[in-house]
Amino acid sequence: MSAPAWAWLQFIACALLIGAAGFQLSRYGDAIARQTGLSGSWIGLTLVASVTSLPELATGITGVTLAHAPNLAVGNALGSCVVNLAFLVLIDLIYRRAPVWSRASKSHVLTAALSLVLLGFLLMGLLIGQLGPQSGSPGASLASVWASVWGVGLMTPIMLMLYLVAMRTLFAYERSNPDPSAAEDAPPALPLRQALMRFALAASVVVGAGLWLPFAAVDLANSMGWNRSFVGSLFVATATSLPELAVTLSALRLGALDMAIGNLLGSNLFNVTIIAVEDFFYRPGILLSDVSLVHAVTASSAIVMTALALVGLFFRPSGRVLRAVGAVSLALAAVYLLNTYVVFLYGA
To answer: Which of 50, 114, 147, 216 yields a CA-CA distance of 20 to 30 A from 276?
Structure first.
């Protein structure tokens, strides 16, 4: 078997494992939500969003340690944010009861706003790491001391703290503004213990495939002659986002629109935080200082796409273009395609 064929075979096998196990997460996550009294949007933001992002976490940590591919790891986390936002277009396309932007809960506005804050700090960290302080300046010595003592970038602890604050804020909001329709049209929940066991089993399969994926992706990049930023931002990000896609489609089938949207936006909060976690595992230096500047384009694309989603959630447009999707969804798709093209041209 040729090297490209073997690389594609490994990659597709990882993707199928991640997708198949991820499909089960929404069912058991929904059961856990209703058994514990949590709303569908809250369980989408925390439990399901975190577990469906475990492939990104496993792939990222393996990428910056064993696989020695920091560009692939960062590209995967940021690319997954962009892919998740592109999935909103798919939701708008297949949800025919009404335009998605007019039916989604306004609680997602808060999630999108918090995502913008985290993405903004990430972009700042990336630019600061790429620029670097001028030699001999007070900032140079300060940055040197910080890096030597903590071994991570300045924005890394800030992003971790912001994620915890975001989760606490969202939990408080959900508790004070319950959504009585979150479980509408859902089948009876499984017993809690059974749901937890099956949820854990599906999560273990997702993590195992996520550990294998970086090596398959590096082989794929080498055999095809593509840059690792592009492979991470497009192929690996799409593969590790298959659980989010499976959860989204399953939630829509159950009629749980807010769980579907909450999973995607909540996953983005977790994906940004994954880069901060990866920085602790990356020992050669500061992670965001050692990756390609092209990731700033992906971070900016995620910011623009999140802002577009925020516009749709806030103004709740009810029209569709050619009876297919809303104008906001078309704009999301255009930004996604532009980002993919730029990363392909200029990635490292």
So the answer is: 216
